[in-house]
Specification:
Blueprint lengths: L10 H10 L6 H12 L4 E4 L6 H12 L9 E4 L3 H14 L8 E4 L5 H9 L4 E4 L1 H9 L10 E4 L2 H6 L3 H9 L6 E6 L4 H10 L4 E4 L10 E7 L5 H10 L6 E4 L3 H13 L4 E4 L5 H12 L5 E4 L1 H4 L9 E4 L6 H8 L9 E7 L4 H11 L4 E2 L5 H18 L4 H15 L4 H19 L10 H4 L10 E6 L9 H11 L8 E5 L4 E6 H11 L3 E2 L2 E2 L2 E3 L46 H5 L4
Parallel strand pairs: 1-6, 1-7, 2-4, 2-5, 3-4, 5-6, 8-13, 8-14, 9-11, 9-12, 10-11, 12-13
Antiparallel strand pairs: 15-17, 15-20, 16-17, 18-19
Helix pairs in contact: 2-3, 3-4, 6-8, 14-15, 16-18
Bound molecules: adenosine monophosphate (AMP).
The site of adenosine monophosphate has 16 residues, from α3.
Length: 585
């Protein structure tokens, strides 16, 4: 595999990449960069966001830029303001050490005067949305007559958003001999027709749609009746205390409503949709990137501009109509080699849509139980304990108050203190879930998941869980590779911290137990037993002992939410609800 240094990029760029810690080129970069450095030709790159496509065209673009010349040599067109800003920021980093390089970004939604100033300051590279660029061309603020390279980034999205005429107009006003590099997630007819009209003799480069076949994504679905959809979302959020996620809704109205409801309940979320003005949207993005928000509630179009690498969860509040859109959504997580979870809340009728998406994604989705109250409390307890374990109090603080603290608790037993602390932290959760209902749509159990006696399925317990690096996908793989059981015989996988559960046909249960028991998963010897049937659906699984909770470090203070009417919960992280609400448009 090539390293960046094997490409004949200019020294300043290679140095910047080293400084950025880029070591190995991504697949699209491997294919495209050497070609664009040597061949003065048009190309089409089929690659989605997250594949490293910006650097794939950005590095050769900068390489070919003559910084001693003060004319616009490169133009990157992109569909949204957010993407423009990201591209500019990325390219600025790559060209950090190129003396005299200027990159201007122009996009709608902000006053044009500042941008006129920017483009008159002789940038060599302009990153633009089509509409604003035309505005600037009409005002004669920009000249494209010396242009050598045009990049159409997310061309399919620009066409979907109705920019066809604008793109055509812009391309008609560029020199005939320039190169055109088109990047698109899909090769739609519209994309092909733009290419045929405006490009010559192009070479195509495709990378396996990274987000479609991303094996680091655990696809889960939860079956709830429609009237329980919102409650299910809450339950999933509560069950993922370290979540840093995106919740997708189908409509702007849902987006607004769902986020308002969540905000009122004390969740640190904010909506992101097309009816919000640009200023508001960037403010939301800033807060999300700085992790003041645990999740964004977004529509598909608004989410296009989100460029964040460490999203832990994508939640589909509703499945999209188009299965392709599912892959765009799920691809927001598990980026840059990380793993992630994509959860979909579906009604019983929508299970067929899941099957359709499974075929497209070529991965099995895991039907997962909506956790019950006890599981939520347990999860948050372990999360909180881990936060305490990981906390590193500042030295000065400890010195300053240690005597007072010591005095106050001198006569309190350690166990009592722990109980008090944990109770304070979790009491809202415990109250809220003291009598919580089962949100799993009832139909499944009737039709045969592990029930009480005489059911067709048996639920098995296995002594490995998240702590062993397991997720549902990996457990399924372990089971099928260690026995000759077909994947479709294993159902309702629930991975807990230390252990997991799954259903198998009763007649196969003994066989599976026998063949898996005493096998090793990583270093742990595996043990299986029949799960107790505490209620239909099987044993929900206990955390036996302690484990590191999912999500890692303390992102959002403590268990600092209040639940519905029981407001007044303290905000350990010091980030109040009011600030979240302030962003509502
Ligand atoms: P993109 O697909 O262009 O939106 O890039 C996704 C993210 O991956 C960006 O944050 C880039 O900075 C980062 N990235 C791109 N190429 C590499 C690479 N070769 N190594 C590490 N990170 C990269």
């Amino acid at each position: 595999m090539n390293s960046f240094s094997s490409f004949s990029l200019r020294e300043e760029i290679l140095q910047a990449l080293t400084d950025l810690g880029f070591e190995t080129p991504t697949p699209i970069q491997q294919k495209v960069i050497p070609y664009l450095l040597s061949e003065p030709k048009d190309i089409i790159g089929l690659a989605q966001t997250g594949t490293g496509k910006t650097a794939a065209y950005g590095l050769p673009l900068l390489h070919h830029t003559d910084t001693s010349v003060k004319t616009v040599q490169c133009l990157v067109l992109s569909p949204t303001r957010e993407l423009c800003m990201q591209i500019q920021t990325e390219m600025q980093k790559y060209g950090d050490q190129m003396r005299g390089l200027r990159i201007a970004a122009v996009y709608g939604g902000v006053p044009i005067t500042g941008q006129i100033r920017d483009v008159r300051a002789n940038p060599q590279v302009i990153v633009a949305t089509p509409g604003r660029l035309i505005d600037l061309l009409e005002r004669k603020a920009i000249s494209l007559e010396n242009l050598q390279y045009v990049v159409l980034d997310e061309a399919d999205e620009m066409l979907n958003m109705g920019f066809r005429e604008d793109i055509e107009l812009i391309l008609k006003n560029t020199p005939a001999e320039k190169r055109t590099w088109l990047f698109s997630a899909t090769m739609s007819n519209d994309v092909r027709s733009i290419a045929k009209r405006f490009m010559k003799d192009w070479q195509e480069f495709a990378v396996a749609a990274a987000n479609v076949t991303n094996e680091n994504i655990d696809h889960q679905y939860f079956v709830a009746n429609h009237h329980n959809r919102f409650e299910t979302l809450r339950r999933l959020l509560d069950f993922a205390p370290g979540i840093y996620g995106i919740i997708f809704t189908r409509t702007k109205q849902d987006c607004q409503e769902v986020s308002e409801k969540l905000m009122k309940m004390g969740y640190h979320v904010s909506p992101l949709h097309g009816d919000m003005d640009q200023k508001m949207r960037s403010k939301v993005m800033e807060r999300f990137k700085s992790k003041q928000l645990q999740a964004i509630v977004a529509t598909d179009v608004a989410a296009r501009g989100i460029d964040v690498n460490d999203i832990t969860h994508v939640i589909n509040y509703e499945l999209p109509d188009d299965p392709e859109v599912y892959t765009h959504r799920s691809g927001r997580t598990a980026r840059a080699g990380k793993s992630g979870i994509c959860m979909s809340i579906v009604s019983p009728k929508q299970i067929s849509n899941i099957r359709q998406i499974e075929r497209l994604v070529k991965q099995k989705f895991h039907k997962t139980d909506i956790p019950d109250g006890a599981e939520v409390v347990r999860k948050r307890l372990f999360f909180y304990m881990q936060q305490i374990a990981d906390a590193e109090p500042k030295d000065e603080f400890a010195k300053l108050y240690f005597d007072s603290m010591h005095e106050q608790f001198a006569n309190v037993d350690k166990d009592e203190l722990i109980r008090k602390l944990i109770w304070l932290q979790l009491k809202d959760t415990i109250d809220a879930y003291s009598d919580s209902e089962d949100l799993n749509a009832g139909f499944e159990r009737k039709s045969g998941a592990a029930g009480a006696s005489g059911s067709r399925y048996t639920r098995l317990f296995i002594n490995i869980g998240e702590k062993d690096g397991l997720n549902a996908q990996r457990l399924l793989q372990f089971i099928t590779e260690s026995t000759d059981v077909e994947p479709n015989m294993v159902d309702r996988i629930t991975v807990r911290d230390l252990s997991s559960f799954f259903n198998v046909p009763t007649e196969a249960a003994e066989y599976i137990k026998e063949h898996l028991s005493n096998k090793k998963y990583k270093t742990r010897k595996v043990r299986l037993e029949e799960a107790e049937q505490s209620r239909p659906g099987g044993d929900r699984g206990g955390d036996r002992g302690y484990s590191k909770p999912q999500g890692g470090g303390a992102r959002f203070g403590g268990d600092n939410r209040s639940f519905g009417k029981k407001s007044g919960g303290s905000y350990g992280g010091g980030r109040g609800r009011d600030r979240d609400r302030g962003d509502r448009s």
